[in-house]
C-alpha cells in the first residue's frame, strides 16, 4: 500500500529523516491551503514567501527523486479545511498509511490529531527534527502557569549543548555580554550601515492566484520578493550575515534610525523566515556563526557572537517552551484587562508619531521589523494605550513574514503586552518617549515634542507612559524593579500628575488622530 506524507508550509526541512531514502510507495503532499490563508489576515508578502518556498521545496524533492503531489490554491480551493483535502486524497490514491510531522502550532496539532483519531487507515506522527530541545523534554523544562526566566534556561542549554563553553565554564568567563552591546548610532555609524542582501523572486503567479481566489491580505505587494525562498538563498543570507553583519550585530541590536535607507535591516540577520519555515536549522545557523567567530575573533568579538547565539539558543527555544506549557489557555490571557481597539494607522502607517510611522510603515512595506521596533515602539504603544491583546496578536501574527503562532504569541501577548501576568518577563516593557529618543533619531523629525509631557504637541508616549503606570499601580508598585519609578512619580506635585493624566486621557480619546 501507499503512504501519504504531509509537509506543512513551515516544515521545509530537507534534512529530515523522511528524505534520506527515496521510497517508491511514498507520496509527499505539499499544498497551498485555503484554511492557512484565512486563519488570520496576512501580509501579502508573508503568504507569497511561504507559497514560493513551498514550491521550491516541492521542486527540490522531485529533483531528488521523491514523488511529490504539489497542489496550488487552484486545486485545493474546493477544500475549505485540511482534513477535507486529506480525506479526499487518501481515498483517491488508495493510501494505507498517513504520516505527518508534529505541527508547531497548537491549532494544527489539534486538527491533525483529531482527524487521525477518526481515520480508518493507520497514522504515524513524526518529530519535525528542527528544534534544539526535543518536544518530549519540554514538560520537564517548562511548567504551566509558572514564571520562567530566559537567562536560567539559556545557561542550562549552554551547559548541556557545550555551545560557547570552556569545560563547565562559559567561554570568556561570563554568560551574557549585553552590557557591551546596545550602542546607539552616531552619524559615522549611520553612513556605514551595509545595504542588505535581498533576493529577486518572481512571485507574480502567486499574486495572481491570491487575487483569483479572493484571498484577503494587507501590506505592500511585491512582484519581486526579497525574502529567501530556497535553501540556496537562505544559505547565502547566512553567509552574508556572518561576513558583514555579525561583527556589529550585538553592538547595534537595539538601535533604530530613519536616516539610512538600510535602517530597516541594520545588522540584523533577517534569518527568521528561513528558520521558521525550517529551511535552515537553528543548529546550522549557530554552528556557522561560531565557525565565523573562531576563524576571525579579532573581527567578531565575543559579545557579538554570544549575543547572536543567545537569540537562537536562548530566546527562540525559550518562547516555544512557554507556548507549549501554557496552550491553549495562553491565547486567552489578558492580565491587564486591556480592551481598546487598534487605531487605523496600524494598516496604513498614517500617523504623526514619527517613530510609529516609521516602524508601522516599514512593517507594511517589507513584512519585517526588528526586535526593538516590534517591542519598544509598536508593542510599547499598544501596551500604553491598553490595546486588546487579541487584536494585537492578530496584527502581529498577520504582518510579519516570520510570524507563526508558537513564536508570535509568547513574544506579543507575553513579552510585549504583559498579558500573561509575568510568566515570561519580570516586568512590563513599558517606556516613555525618552527611551525611543535615546535609541533612535525618530524624534528629531517628529510633529511631537519629545521634551514635553503636557501641552501642545507633547510626545504621546510621555503622558501615556505615566498613565499606564498610574492605572496599574496596585499591580506593579510592589515589583522591586519598578518601585523607584513609582516613588519618582509620587514626588511630583499633584497638579503636575493631574495634568499628565489629563493629557493622556485626551490622547486616548483622540487616538485615531495621533
Ligand atoms: P535577529 O535580530 O538577527 O536575531 C536572530 C534570530 O534570533 C532571529 O531570526 C530569531 O530566530 C531569533 N530570535 C531573536 N529574538 C527572538 C525572540 N524574542 N523570540 C524568538 N526568536 C528570537 N520572531 C519570530 O520569529 N516570529 C514572530 O512572529 C515574532 N513576533 C514578535 C513579536 C513581538 C511583539 C516581539 C517583541 C518580537 C517578536 N519576534 C518574533 C522576535 C524577534 O523580534 C524576531 O525573531 C526578529 O526580529 C527576527 O528578525 P531577524 O531574523 O533579523 O532577527
Ligand atoms: Fe515617537 Fe514621541 Fe519621539 Fe515623536 S517625539 S518620534 S511620538 S517618541
UniProtKB/TrEMBL annotation:
The keyword Lyase applies. GO terms for molecular function: lyase activity. InterPro entries: Crypto/Photolyase_FAD-like_sf, PhrB-like, Rossmann-like_a/b/a_fold, UV-DNA_repair_photolyase. Keywords: Lyase. Pfam families: DPRP (PF04244). This is Protein related to deoxyribodipyrimidine photolyase. It comes from Marinobacterium lacunae. The lineage of its organism: Bacteria, Pseudomonadati, Pseudomonadota, Gammaproteobacteria, Oceanospirillales.
